[in-house]
Amino acid sequence: KQEVTQIPAALSVPEGENLVLNCSFTDSAIYNLQWFRQDPGKGLTSLLLIQSSQREQTSGRLNASLDKSSGRSTLYIAASQPGDSATYLCAVSYGGSQGNLIFGKGTKLSVKP
Amino acid sequence: NAGVTQTPKFRILKIGQSMTLQCTQDMNHNYMYWYRQDPGMGLKLIYYSVGAGITDKGEVPNGYNVSRSTTEDFPLRLELAAPSQTSVYFCASSYPPVGTGARYEQYFGPGTRLTVT
């Protein structure tokens, strides 16, 4: 069964710290991987998308890496800010005729001032 | 572009009632999806559509129905609502993968928070 696991489930850090969120997936034949941010009671905001042929993507203070062979991705957040507090979701797509995303349960991040 | 829009934002239903969740996208995407998110869980696929007139079941389709008469709209119908359908519902859309350079990124609506009591 294709599953996505995110560790840790929750993380609390002081402002300014660099941090890493982890995502692992059981079937390495992915088409792409997306990282989303979800604020309480809100929808999903796409942060980064990594194609299966890519190793990493960067956007501002965010850097996502992909190691397909080991079934892992990390989201690195540099110089964290209180405004980064949210739940971060990792999702993979296997493309094909369905193309849906399979989601992890998320990591709830709290950045304290 | 408004992107993906969903209505209503919130709804409370009584057990046994029915309702339709609306989803519209203005990006001319072929693929559309309905997911549900239960507290502390990831999103699970309910139904999807690869184009007008074509729909198929996802992981958790029981208790729901969909239709896709136009490219833009993908409504989700709940018949005989049950407490187990209390959840947040998200609609999403994307292009299908075309060629090796396709990003195939999914875009999400703001969600509908449904409570069945």
Description:
The complex is a heterodimer of chains A (113) and B (117). Chain A is an all-beta fold. Chain A has strands spanning 4-7, 10-14, 19-25, 32-38, 44-51, 56-59, 62-67, 72-77, 86-93, 101-103, 107-112. Chain B is globular, with a radius of gyration of 14 Å. With 117 residues, chain B is mainly beta. In chain B, a hairpin with a 5-residue loop joins β4 (31-37) and β5. Chain B has strands at 4-7, 10-13, 19-25, 31-37, 43-51, 54-57, 64-66, 76-78, 87-94, 107-108, 112-116. In chain B, strands 2, 4, 5, 6, 9, 10 and 11 form a seven-stranded mixed beta sheet that branches. A four-stranded antiparallel beta sheet of chain B has the order 1-3-8-7, with no helix packed on it. Chain B is built from no helices and eleven strands.
> If you compute it from the alpha carbons, what radius of gyration of chain A comes out, rounded to the nearest whole angstrom?
14 Å
Distinct helical segment count of chain A: 0
Taking the alpha carbons of the first and last residues of chain B, their distance comes to 36 Å
Helix content of chain A: under 10%
Largest sheet of chain A: 6 strands, mixed
State mean pLDDT of chain B (0 to 100 scale).
Answer: 91
Helix % of chain B is under 10%
Give the SSE map.
The complex is a heterodimer of chains A (113) and B (117).
Chain A: E1 4-7, E2 10-14, E3 19-25, E4 32-38, E5 44-51, E6 56-59, E7 62-67, E8 72-77, E9 86-93, E10 101-103, E11 107-112
Parallel strand pairs in A: 2-11
Antiparallel strand pairs in A: 1-3, 3-8, 4-5, 4-9, 6-7, 7-8, 9-10, 9-11
Chain B: E1 4-7, E2 10-13, E3 19-25, E4 31-37, E5 43-51, E6 54-57, E7 64-66, E8 76-78, E9 87-94, E10 107-108, E11 112-116
Parallel strand pairs in B: 2-11
Antiparallel strand pairs in B: 1-3, 3-8, 4-5, 4-9, 5-6, 7-8, 9-10, 9-11
